[in-house]
Every structure is written in C-alpha cells, then in structure tokens.
Amino acid sequence: MARRLKILLIEDRQTDAELCLEELRRAGFMFESQRVYTRERLEHALDSFAPDLVLADFSIPSDIHGVVGLQTVRQFAPHVPFIYVSGTVGEERAREAMKNGATDYVPKDRLHELGPAVERALRKS
Which pTM was predicted? Predict the structure, then answer.
C-alpha cells in the first residue's frame, strides 16, 4: 500500500490494539494510529485525527460498547470503513452489525485475516 493510513482503534486494551497494529505491519500497511475507549474521545478523534479506517472491539466497558461505537462513527464519518475486531461477537451479531453499517468483522483469534479485510474495506471506500 503506497499511502500512509490513519487508523483509529476503539479498544480498551492496549495489548489488543498492539496485536492488531502488528498484524497490519506484517501485512505491509504503513500507518499512524490513535486509540480511544470513550465516546467523547471517539468524537474528538473523528474530527481531529480524521481516520481512513476504524477498527473496533465490540465489548468495551465504557459508553461506546457494542454498536454505539459504530453508530457514532456512522454519524460523524459515514464514509470511513469500520471493522469490528472482537472476540465476543458471535456470527449472528456480526451479520447484524454488517446490516447496521459495519464494513467487516474479524475475530481476535483469527487476526491473520485482518490485513485482507482492511484491503477489501479500503477498496470499497
């Protein structure tokens, strides 16, 4: 990938965020990133950081848990690809999230699928 991406992570665990970013480095992506875990910080980052991509955990013990993060991104940055990277979303919830505007879903135990998912999401945007 030629351009440097801006990746926003909605993730409460630093180690999980780092695992995602390491997987993207392995896949050849160049990027800068920010991590948020509250709705206020998410809204600020959508405005000030202007991400090209959002990666989000589904289960965050804050005010952006579940679909709230997706709804917030769709409200403030409707064109930005949004990929859930979570270990707690079942297949049925993942399908529902896609219907509600998520671009894709990658289980945390299959992070090797993150690079291809990001490539697909960026091609569609």
Answer: 0.93
